[in-house]
Amino acid sequence: MAMTVGSRDGEDHNEVMATINTTPLVDVMLVLLIIFLITIPVVSHTVPVSLPKEAVQPLQTTPRNVILAVTKQGDVFWDELRVPDAATLVEKLKAVAAQSPQPEVHIRGDLDARYAVIGRVVFACQQAGISKVDFITEPPPRQ
Fold first, then answer.
1. Which domains, and CATH codes, for the chain?
2. pTM greater than the 0.70 cutoff
3. Which of 8, 29, 113, 139 is deepest in the core (most CB within 10 A)?
4. For the range 98-103, what are the long-range contacts, defined as Cβ-Cβ under 8 Å and sequence gap of 24 or more?
C-alpha cells in the first residue's frame, strides 16, 4: 500500500491510500515484451535444408450423406424424392454401399411415424450393406 505524503486543502492528513500503483507493473511488462520480440528471431533459426516441392492432392473426399425421411403416413423419401417400395430402396442403397468410402445414411423419422416403417428402412440399410446408419433428432426446447 502507498501513503499520501503531501497535504491537500481541507483533507485529512492521516488517510491511507488503498489503490495499487500499476505503473511499475506496466513498465516491467513492456520491457519483457521488448526482450521477447528481440530474442524470438534469434531462437527460431534452424539448419538450412532444401525441402522437396510437392503439390498437395486430397487423398480421399468424403461422400455426400444419404438422407432418408419417413413421414407419419409411412412414405419414404430419398432426399426429396419418394421411394415407391422397399425393393427400390434396397437397390438404391446397394448402389450407395458400393461407393468407396461408403456414405452414411441419416434417417429423419416423423415423431408420429410407426416404428415398423422405420424398422423396415433400417432393415433395408442392413440388406444393402450400409455400415453406418444415424437417426436425426431435434434437441428438446430449453426451459
1. 66-135 (3.30.420.270)
2. no
3. 113
4. 99/63, 101/60, 101/62, 101/63, 102/63, 102/130, 102/131, 102/132, 103/63, 103/64, 103/65, 103/66
